[in-house]
Amino acid sequence: FDPRHYLGTRCYGFPKTGPHRLRFLLESVKDLRETLKKKGSTLVVRKGKPEDVVCDLITQLGSVSAVAFHEEVREI
């Protein structure tokens, strides 16, 4: 979770992420983790700037050969 997505406001003083959206995101991540666990896998969840968190995870794991990601489409 990138804190920059949840702090501050966007247009007209509205929060970037309101309480209902945040609850939905947290419940979705929890459900995904539980589903993966039932299948013998896991989900790594971290809070921080992705450029820092991903670098730290790669360092911790040590044997990473590839990293894939996507960028969120930004509104104009």
UniProtKB/TrEMBL annotation:
One of its GO terms (biological process) is photoreactive repair. Residues 1-76 form the Photolyase/cryptochrome alpha/beta domain. SUPFAM superfamilies: Cryptochrome/photolyase, N-terminal domain. Coiled coil: none annotated. Keywords: Chromophore. Gene3D superfamilies: HUPs. One of its GO terms (molecular function) is deoxyribodipyrimidine photo-lyase activity. Pfam families: DNA_photolyase (PF00875). It comes from the Eukaryota. This is CRYD protein. The lineage of its organism: Eukaryota, Metazoa, Chordata, Craniata, Vertebrata. The gene is Crydash_0.
